[in-house]
Specification:
four-stranded parallel beta sheet, 325 residues, 44% helix, 12 strands, alpha/beta
């Protein structure tokens, strides 16, 4: 016969075993609550020292917020090491997706691969990386076709003879070379068009001003300047104003930045290519949301058309896109 003391001990053992067994097979507490953690997207951009990229970043952030996410902008300041630090922080902080504008076509691949290995999808915006197996999708301007159209307009405005300068962007960015190749695919057909200088100004307005000022000292009789983006076009225009040559030298840009569009309307800059940063940013955010919600069939590259903006059609454009949009 079991006495009362032993009965109490057996009951205690049974209750303990029941508690242990009932916990078997349950997910840890953190795993149970992970779905209720804040939904966050990271927006990583090459630089905020350019209004065009500010629009790209803020539009991506705002669209992500509209879709129900917390969103943070990270500025890489055109520095690959800062970009790498951002990715390390993002991977460690539990973000659901990254909307990404890279600093370097080759150097940024490792950062995207780090995110992929952490199961964080990356959607590229505007600038391209040289890999097709790490980002889920890249939403890119059709830079080559856009500068083919610019090259054709360049010949129309400058003529089949003349001297010109080309200001290149970042040498590690595919956009730099795609834009240059598109432009040269047209102008190089004309032997009378002479490129007297081709120099990088890193897509930067202040650097473009300095570079063109130096070029003008050696080549005071140029007829035109082709710039790989609108920030450099503004710097080039400033240098020409300072040299008293703004009315004689035609400036061509690329981006569709508001300050250049306004100067085109005033007849002070010849043309630009409208890239539609808002379209790229919204597409990236919406694609990331679709991925998080289960979609997997994304094209590796999604091209976004570029439109030529001249004084003849400038009234249609503004606010980094078409006015009706």
């Amino acid at each position: 016969m079991i006495n009362n003391k032993m009965s109490s001990m057996l009951l205690s053992i049974i209750l303990t075993l029941t508690t242990i067994l009932s916990g078997c097979g349950k997910a840890p507490k953190d795993a149970e609550t992970s779905d209720s953690s804040p939904k966050r997207m990271a927006v990583v951009v090459s630089t905020l020292n350019n209004p065009w990229f500010v629009i790209l970043a803020e539009t991506a952030r705002d669209r992500a917020v509209e879709l129900g996410y917390e969103a943070t902008i990270f500025d890489s300041q055109n520095d690959p090491s800062k970009e790498a630090a951002h990715f390390e922080n993002i991977v460690a902080s539990g973000y659901r997706a990254i909307l990404f504008n890279p600093t370097d076509a080759d150097g940024s691949v490792a950062n995207v691969r780090r995110a992929k290995n952490a199961n964080i999808p990356v959607f590229g915006m505007d600038r391209e990386i040289n890999a097709t197996d790490v980002a889920v999708s890249q939403i890119l301007s059709d830079n080559y076709s856009g500068t083919v159209a610019l090259g054709q307009y360049f010949v129309k405005e400058v003529g089949k003879t003349g001297k010109y300068v080309e200001l290149l962007g970042l040498v590690g960015d595919n956009n730099t070379w795609n834009r240059s190749k598109g432009f040269h695919s047209v102008v190089d057909r004309y032997d009378g068009l002479e490129m007297v200088a081709q120099q990088s100004a890193d897509f930067d307005r202040a650097k473009a001003l300095d570079v063109l000022e130096s070029v003008l000292q050696a080549n005071p009789d140029i007829d035109a300047v082709f710039c790989g983006n609108d920030a450099m076009a503004m710097g080039a225009y400033q240098a020409l104003v300072a040299a008293g040559k703004a009315e004689q030298v035609k400036v061509f840009g690329f981006d569709g930045a508001d300050d250049v569009v306004k100067l085109i309307a005033e007849g002070k800059i010849a043309a630009t290519g409208m890239q539609f940063p808002k379209v790229m940013a919204k597409t990236a955010a919406q694609s990331a949301d679709a991925y998080i919600n289960g979609k997997r069939d994304f094209p590796q590259k999604t091209p976004v058309g570029v439109e030529l903006v001249t004084q003849e059609n400038v009234a249609r454009y503004g606010d980094f896109g078409r006015k009706q949009d």
